[in-house]
Amino acid sequence: MQINRGINISGTLVNNLRFADDIDVLEEDCDSLHQQIEQLKITAEEAGLLINTKKTKTLVFGDRNIEKHVQIAGNIIENVEQFEYLGSLLTWDNNCRDEIKRRIGKSIGAMATLK
């Protein structure tokens, strides 16, 4: 994938995060996101892989009124307000309140099993 675009994190352009078969594509706008996903689709197909459009979601940070939708192979990708990635809850407003509540709940559950 190209690395001359994406979002700026501490002076470094980042356009994707990858772990095993989980890939996050990061972009500043919907058109660039669509281009990156198309490139990912082509690269995946060359390796004999397909993107599961039922599991794929888009999460827009900061703007809930986005009108555009990303499509992969003619399938509209669902926009969501929150998404769990590698065990952490990401939200449209970048608020960690729900993530903290989730982790406290998991901790209480784990402590209860120790009794």
TrEMBL record:
Coiled coil feature spans: none
Domain Reverse transcriptase span(s) in chain numbering: 1-90
Protein name stated in the entry: Reverse transcriptase domain-containing protein
Species: Rotaria magnacalcarata
